[in-house]
Amino acid sequence: MNVARSFNAWRKYRQTVTELGRMSSRDLQDLGINRADIHSIARQSVAR
After folding, report:
1. Domain coverage including residue 28
2. What positions does the domain YjiS-like occupy (predicted)?
């Protein structure tokens, strides 16, 4: 993976973590997401 792709993947990961982290626990629960799973979900979003 080149530098630009790595940087873009990192940005997407951070954006996902930030957006999910700002959501209330109730909103996350409505989506079926546990707060402890945020980093795992963010990693999955980059892997796609």
Report:
1. 3-47
2. 3-39
